[in-house]
Amino acid sequence: MAWNDPGFGETGAMAGVLTGFAIIGAIVALGWIVGRLGVLGPHAAHAMGRSAFFVFSPALLFTVLADADVRQLFSALLPVSAAAAGLCLLVYAVVARVVWRRGAAESTIGALASSYTNANNIGLPLAAYVLGDPALSAPVILLQLIVIAPIALTILDISTSGRVSIGRVLSQPVRSPLIIGSALGLLLSVTGVEPPEPVMEPFRLLGAAAVPIVLFVLGLSLTGQRVLAPGSGRRDVLLATVLKIVVMPLAAWAIGAFAVGLEGAELFTVVTLAALPAGQNVFQYAQRFDRAVVVARDAVLITTALSVPALVIVAALLAPR
Q: Shortest CA distance to 284 belongs to which of 86, 45, 124?
């Protein structure tokens, strides 16, 4: 359903929010059940998580950005999303590093949890259900994978490896499959090159597996674990949650409405995308570098749960009638 359809409005937006999260919740629950039964063995979450990081997610990002309209990629939504995310990221980083004295890797994961929107796994289907066009999440995907992710992955790589060199920093983009996939997709979108369907179809098939696999792995990781357990970094999770679910959408609304002059469908779109939960990519990065894994997992789960009422409120207040 698109914006100009007569049936679109507050009710349709709320229904889309609930539908999207019901689908997501079902897959996470299935992963938890399978983990409890132990049918995949003790190392399933690690192996599947790496396959999503190195194979399936890069394929998804490649095809999404390759198919996106370049005018949507660089629309007015991009600077608003960048400003709102940057604000939350900066606030968390300052508190974690200066006040709590967290390490660079742990601070990076927490900062991502407070600002890195789930524009892929939830944003794409929710943009289709709620906003009427899945490509509307493409500017946020572009921002995160081309700007935020390279910086974060470089910090994580250097802080966990203990090696600092210009060559290692400069080579980070070509060593990250997520960044490579995003960059190649963006290149096709900007140049207008359309590879033959037999070339693109394998990537589409691999990419189609990314969302369910990441959600399934998230469910697997919950087996035998308790959210917000003592000693697991509860205040880190709570700060990231408040920034992601409360501060970021409010910042997107204020910046979009008063600084950029967005209104109607555009304002609703940018605030909706800001109110999405922390991305599963944050959990992937934490797993990959074995830093703040529990903080990332809990932040993703809690923000995912709380984003449902947050998105319903956004729809009630801003959805075009």
A: 45
All domains in the chain, ordered by first residue: 10-222+233-318 (1.20.1530.20)
- 3-state SS, the chain, equals CCCCCCCCCHHHHHHHHHHHHHHHHHHHHHHHHHHHHCCCCCCHHHHHHHHHHHHHHHHHHHHHHHHCCHHHHCCCHHHHHHHHHHHHHHHHHHHHHHHCCCCHHHHHHHHHHHHCECCCCCHHHHHHHHHCCHHHHHHHHHHHHHHHHHHHHHHHHHHHHCCCCHHHHHHHHHHCHHHHHHHHHHHHHHHCCCCCHHHHHHHHHHHHCHHHHHHHHHHHHCCCCCCCCCCCCHHHHHHHHHHHHHHHHHHHHHHHHHHHCCCHHHHHHHHHHHCCCECHHHHHHHHHHCCCHHHHHHHHHHHHHHHHHHHHHHHHHHCCC
Residue type at 221 in one-letter notation: S
Distance CA 70, CA 73 (A): 5
pLDDT exceeds 80 at position 185: yes
Cα–Cα distance measured from residue 299 to residue 243, given in angstroms and rounded to the nearest whole number: 11
179 or 98, which is more confident?
98
201 Cβ contact list (under 8 Å, min separation 6): none
Residue 297, CA distances (Å) to 65, 111, 294 in order: 27, 14, 5
**At residue 133, what is the residue type?**
D
pLDDT, tens digit (0-9, with 9 covering 90-100), for 83-93:
999 999 999 99
Predicted TM-score (pTM) of the model is 0.77
